[in-house]
Amino acid sequence: MAIRNIREIGDEILTKKCKAVSEMTPRVRELIGDMLDTMYEANGVGLAAPQVGILKRIVVIDTTGEDPHILINPRIVKTEGEQTGNEGCLSVPGKTGVVTRPNYVKVVAQGADMKEYELEGTELLARAICHELDHLEGQLYVDKVEGKLMDMTDEEDEGEEEID
Length: 164
Ligand code: NI
What we know:
Layout: H1 26-41, E1 46-48, E2 58-61, E3 69-80, E4 83-87, E5 95-101, E6 104-110, E7 116-122, H2 123-136, E8 146-151, H3 154-158
Antiparallel strand pairs: 1-2, 2-3, 3-6, 4-5, 5-8, 6-7
The structure holds nickel (II) ion.
């Protein structure tokens, strides 16, 4: 496994829609391992494949540091409520902004075994799911920010606002 280079805003690949993954291959398995390594190395709570330059519908999320979720071809099937808070993105370094997201999300995805499963999340996990799935559509949170995109202070840098 290896750390991959994280693409940053301005890179066209971050604006493109990703393609479905039809089967697990050694190459896809390696990509997922590298995405987890890259996410942990960058202290993110999630990472989407286009952020490492691959236009496939794959997301990894771990909001606690010990519970990695692998989501292949994910789709949101239910949302409830609302949360408004700071969000950040590894592809938009040093910035943060306020985004409103559902407070509860249920997602159906395939795992590393390509079997379908459900994942439910509230609060930070719900926010991370929405943020990462947006990446698969070529969307960045900066286009959903309420008010201005702000510089992240050192203090916020230590916090959990940053998603990926
Ligand atoms: Ni992001």
